[in-house]
Design a protein that fits this description.
There is one protein chain. Helix content is about 35%, strand content about 15%. The strands form four sheets. A three-stranded parallel sheet has the order 1-4-9, covered by helices on one side. Strand 2 and strand 3 form a beta hairpin. The longest helix is centred in the middle third of the chain and has 16 residues. The radius of gyration is 16 Å and the shape is globular. It starts with a strand and ends with a helix. The model has no long low-confidence stretch (mean pLDDT about 95).
Length: about 210
């Protein structure tokens, strides 16, 4: 499966990563995901932003970058503004009452406080954290060359984008609610959020939601 890198990736990204992961009483077979490492950086995509659910609605958390016209592995994170502090405050405000936020908060903050130099490194860290904490066994490897869109099977690089329709959860039969702190204010379940939302609200049961266990 071929996916783009993402900053605290959305539910559809995690659901695809979990699709081929086999969990049974006697063995675990991890899924395999190839991350697009040879593309040019794509603006206004999940590569440098994620979405959480706050008391006043969906909130975007964005990573400022330098050299946005560069290849994805060369894009530098811009730490000249206090976006890390703002991000941590936003997470505290949105999820302080979530059932598992206190349990995972320090691990999430540690990734941000490490201040990786490149966006690629930051995304790998956020992806790795969510895979580990949600319980998805998955091997990640960078792509060695750029493949044209839809030139190979299981290419979902362009299927997951915040500005485009996303039918991944529907395709995987995962279009169903889980508990969200502010869902009543929103009039119901809010999909297309970062996997952080699932983790903070469902904790160890996240894998059950992702795998329909």
């Amino acid at each position: 499966m071929l996916l783009s890198s993402a900053y605290f990736p959305p539910l559809s990204w995690l659901a695809l990563a979990a699709r081929d992961f086999t969990l049974s009483p006697d063995r675990i077979l991890p899924s395999a995901v190839q991350l697009e490492a040879c593309e040019n950086y794509q603006k206004q995509s999940y590569r440098n932003r994620c979405y959480i659910l706050a008391g006043d609605g969906v909130q975007m958390l964005q990573v400022p970058v330098k050299h946005a016209s560069s290849a994805i592995r060369d894009v530098r994170v811009d730490y000249s503004t206090p976006w890390v502090t703002r991000t941590k405050r936003a997470l505290d405000t949105a999820y302080e009452t979530a059932a598992y936020y206190a349990y995972y908060r320090d691990d999430v903050f540690a990734v941000l406080d490490a201040r990786p130099e490149t966006l690629w490194e930051l995304n790998l860290a956020t992806i790795g954290l969510l895979l580990e904490k949600t319980g998805i066994a998955c091997t990640l490897s960078p792509s060695s060359s750029f493949a044209a869109p839809d030139s190979q099977p299981d290419d979902y690089r362009f299927a997951i984008h915040p500005k485009h329709p996303d039918s991944v959860l529907e395709m995987l039969r995962l279009e169903r609610p889980y508990y969200q702190v502010f869902r009543d204010r929103m009039g119901g379940f809010v999909p297309r959020l970062s996997g952080l939302d699932l983790l903070f609200n469902e904790g160890p049961d996240s894998i059950s939601w992702l795998k329909r266990l």
